[in-house]
From TrEMBL:
Keywords: Membrane, Transmembrane, Transmembrane helix, Transport. It is found in: Membrane. Coiled coil: none annotated. GO terms for cellular component: plasma membrane. The keyword Transmembrane applies. This is Related to uracil permease. It is a multi-pass membrane protein. The keyword Membrane applies. Belongs to the nucleobase:cation symporter-2 (NCS2) (TC 2.A.40) family. The chain crosses the membrane at residues 125-147, 153-174, 186-206. It comes from the Bacteria.
Length: 232
């Protein structure tokens, strides 16, 4: 057999998959009961100045997610409880999480995609899910099991969920009466999609804005700068 064909040997591929992509050894090595690692914050002005511009990204994502959830569930969350209250909830939850060394608890677009896929609109489901996740964080083997999920599997899930949130966002624009065939709207939507999906990054010294944050800012600026089209 030629050397270049050896890589396509099914036996070699099977061995690589089992040994490299999926290993259950972390589950057997981990303990049943494990206390999560808590880290208390330290005051650092450099970190504060670095985080402030980054906070623009989750704020814009939060607003878009609330609009997407409204489109999926048919309930206007901008009116009740109001965008100011949902943002406040994000901020309080993130502050508490960061005080204990946890990740930010902002709204994530992939969760919106999951809600659209499962049609699980009841907020109580998310509440019980969060409580269950907190309890599971003290079970070491569950965390180890989740860590064994192969990266390609998670990548496939992200492709589906992020694709769905994009379609939901476009569908929201269409339902709101936005004509995407108009040049002004085409320019704004095109710049947002290319900059957000392409991962464009803007840096100025220590300041760095990229992806969703940069795309959102550019969208807002273009909406303010580009002149409104005349009604025909």
């Amino acid at each position: 057999m030629p050397r270049h064909q050896a890589a396509f040997d099914p036996g070699v591929l099977a061995n690589y998959t089992s040994s490299q992509l999926l290993s259950l050894k972390p589950i057997t090595d981990s303990a049943w009961f494990a206390i999560p690692h808590f880290t208390f914050p330290e005051w650092n002005w450099s970190a504060v100045l670095f985080i402030v511009p980054i906070a623009i990204a989750p704020a814009i994502e939060h607003f878009g997610d609330v609009l997407a959830i409204r489109s999926v569930t048919g309930k206007d969350y901008l009116e009740e409880p109001g965008i100011q209250n949902t943002l406040l909830g994000d901020g309080v939850a993130t502050s508490i999480a960061s005080f204990l060394g946890g990740p930010p608890n902002t709204t994530y677009s992939e969760v919106t995609g999951a809600v659209a896929l499962t049609k699980a609109f009841n907020p109580a489901i998310m509440t019980w899910t969060a409580l269950t996740a907190i309890l599971f964080s003290f079970v070491g083997k569950i965390g180890a099991f989740l860590a064994t999920i192969p990266t390609p599997v998670m990548g496939g899930i992200m492709i589906l969920l992020f694709g769905m949130i994009t379609v939901i966002g476009i569908n929201t624009l269409v339902k709101a009466g936005s004509d995407l065939s108009r040049p002004r709207n085409l320019v704004i939507v095109s710049v947002i999609l290319v900059c957000g999906i392409g991962g464009m990054k803007f840096t100025a010294g220590a300041l760095a804005i990229e992806k969703i944050g940069l795309a959102g800012i550019l969208g807002v600026l273009l909406n303010l700068i580009l002149p409104a089209e005349r009604e025909e």
